[in-house]
Specification:
By secondary structure, this protein is α+β, with helices and mostly antiparallel strands. It contains 2 helices and 9 strands. Strands 1-3-4-5-6-7-8-9 form an 8-stranded antiparallel beta barrel. Keywords: Apoplast, Secreted, Signal.
Length: about 180
């Protein structure tokens, strides 16, 4: 019984101490991950030039046996496209779209986009966003997920809305308007 009494005293003293500490911490409002998150909206134009003097993308894979029904299926491009403030080719460069896109449907013009939007200007200089998703190019507006980011956009998640501004059927040159919304830390 004599060894049991010091144990009870020890238990009472430490439980009182820890309950005082925990009540002090519970009085303070905790900082949650939601409190640290930021929401950013971006607007820019993607300029894709698949040939010619200022080429920014090139075919890196073509299927060997292409049927008439699936004439684009499997064609894959590597891109280092410009991201500009406006649709004009002379507007301010804000970044580069670097990655791969390929025709992923046998029936429609649907691309699989695996892109990093690497920003080179302003507060986002050196930061990037990663896009991975389906791009049905002839839909009026396409939504693709933002699956990550770096720099200012560390742990980013969100979506990118793409809308074709112009497309030249003869040259393949496309200008696509992007509205991107992301949550990040």
């Amino acid at each position: 019984m004599a060894t049991f009494i010091p144990f009870i005293v020890y238990f009472v003293v430490f439980s009182t101490f820890f309950s005082a500490i925990s009540s002090k911490f519970s009085e303070q409002s905790p900082i949650t991950m939601k409190d640290m998150e930021k929401k950013t909206s971006l607007h820019f134009y993607f300029h894709d030039i698949p040939g010619g003097k200022n080429q920014t993308s090139t075919a890196i894979a073509r299927p060997i046996n292409m049927t008439a029904a699936a004439k684009s299926f499997g064609i894959t491009f590597m891109a280092d496209d410009m991201l500009r403030e406006g649709p004009e080719p002379t507007s301010k460069l804000v970044g580069r779209a670097q990655g791969i896109y390929g025709f992923a449907s046998q029936q429609n013009a649907v691309l699989l986009m695996v892109m990093n939007f690497a920003f080179v200007d302003g507060i986002y200089n050196g930061s990037s966003l990663s896009i991975l998703g389906r791009n049905a190019v002839f839909d009026n507006v396409r939504e693709m997920p933002v699956v990550g980011g770096s720099g200012v956009f560390r742990l980013a998640r969100g979506y990118a809305l793409a809308k074709t501004f112009s497309f030249n059927l003869n040259t393949g040159v496309a200008v696509v308007e992007y509205n991107v919304s992301v949550v990040h830390f």
